[in-house]
Amino acid sequence: AETCVILVRVPHAGRTLAMAVIVAEVRDVVVFERAQLLPPPEFGLRLDTRFLLGMVRGDDAGLTLLLDLECVLDEDELSAAAAAIR
Hints:
Helix content: 10-25%
Strand order of the largest sheet: 1-2
Distance between the termini: 33 Å
Strand content: 25-35%
Number of strands: 4
Shape: globular
Radius of gyration: 15 Å
Largest sheet: 2 strands, antiparallel
Mean pLDDT: 84
């Protein structure tokens, strides 16, 4: 019931792809300036942070973690999307 489609732009092979990504839920929409983007947290060796672009501290002192879609979407998915719009 809470499944959503999010429209994103992802750089791939020298161009920007517009894609629709299906997500299980959207909890909030956050608007921020690039200067507010902090590096991914260092959780130690037990947690893989390679899929995180960074994080943003919210007004309520909470943190929003940002996914790096270039890392989340694999090369096959990006290539298929690029081929579909040619």
